[in-house]
Amino acid sequence: MGSGMRIAFCTTADLTGTVILNAVLPLLAADEVVVFLSARKRATDEMVPSLRHAWFYERSFPMEILFPSLDAAYPDGGGDLLTPRQLARRYGVPMTRVATPEDWRGASGILAFRPDLVVSSRFGFKFPDALIEAAPGRVLNLHPSALPAYRGQFPVLRALAAGETAIGCTLHHVATGFDEGDIALVTSIPVAPGRSNFWHVLNAYRSGIPLIAEAVRMARAGEALPRRPQGPGAPPRGFPDENEIAAAAAAGWKLVDPAELDGLLARFRGSEAVPLPAAPPAAATGS
Predict the structure, then answer these.
(1) Comparing C-alpha atoms, which of 66, 78, 81 is closest to residue 26?
(2) What value, to the nearest 5°, has the Cα angle with vertex 46 and ends 63 and 265?
(3) Residue-wise pLDDT tens for the chain (287 aa)?
(4) How far apart are CA 270 and CA 34, in angstroms?
(5) CATH 3.90.226.10 fits 6-264, yes or no
(6) CA-only gyration radius of the chain, Å
(7) 8 Cβ partners below 8 Å, 6+ apart?
(8) DSSP 3-state assignment of 232?
(9) Residues 262, 259: Cα–Cα separation, whole Å
């Protein structure tokens, strides 16, 4: 295989996904890349008040309020971090938003692209068997836990609540089962007392960027990616309920701390501060 490849990269249209794109796209400058952004919203976004409150800061405010205003004012970027639209402009990478199963259409957009490598990180849609079979050994996912531990949703919060001293990050081959594919590469970060779940999630994914870079290097060189079967583990878990979130908060692990976001959001604007508006009350349940 030559130095350049066809790579499909999949992540979520939120603050963490945008930071991931800022780190990954420069690594893929020699490749033909398409990006798929999951904008999927689930019923739990409204049903669990604490999740609704956290996702206002992680998703609604940056994607629906801040980033559009920055795109209009600074099309080429105003800070050292770029919005998805600014990234698409700088790197010439097409980005497709998928919000519903009808948008996703069983990964039809990726299949039509015929990628040499598919990498997902924090993506909201399941890859069908047809995609896995179309790129055998080259469909990967970055998951913020040391698999097989903490499969499923919110693995970082559950690791923090369980008293883990480190948060793992696993690059694994995608299989039919959720978070059950063979392990390619693993890393970890130490737990930072006093920091939020958001901070740990963001930095776990950041720690996984070198794993993606190594997988891309190996794929460009025509090398087979490592494969180590996962050991036994608990089944994947779904979204936490209010009781589980409250128990984690009581142990010192907030879902999100708005104070942590100020400096991060300022990096998109190129200024010292980006004032955060008040989120909808955590107890609110309506739209």
Answers:
(1) 81
(2) 25
(3) 335 899 999 999 999 999 999 999 999 999 999 999 999 887 767 789 999 999 999 999 999 999 999 999 999 998 999 999 999 999 999 999 999 999 999 999 999 999 999 999 999 899 999 999 999 999 999 999 999 999 999 999 999 999 999 999 999 999 988 888 999 999 999 999 999 999 999 999 999 999 999 999 999 999 999 999 998 888 999 999 999 999 999 999 999 998 888 889 989 987 645 556 666 655 433 33
(4) 27
(5) no
(6) 18
(7) 33, 34, 35, 36, 110, 113, 115, 117, 118, 119
(8) coil
(9) 6
Residue 144: closest CA among 226, 207, 192? 207
What span, in angstroms and rounded, lies between the C-alpha atoms of 190 and 196? Answer: 13
Spatial separation of the C-alpha atoms in residues 64 and 120, rounded to whole Å: 23
Segment holding 142, helix H or strand E:
strand 139-143
3-state secondary structure of 44: helix
CB of 169 closer than 8 Å to CB of 189:
yes
What is the rounded CA–CA span in Å between residue 78 and residue 71? 9
239's torsion region: left (phi>0), alpha (psi -120 to 50) or beta? Answer: beta
Does the predicted TM-score (pTM) go above 0.85? Answer: yes
Distance, in Å, from the CA atom of 275 to the CA atom of 287, rounded to the nearest integer, reads 24
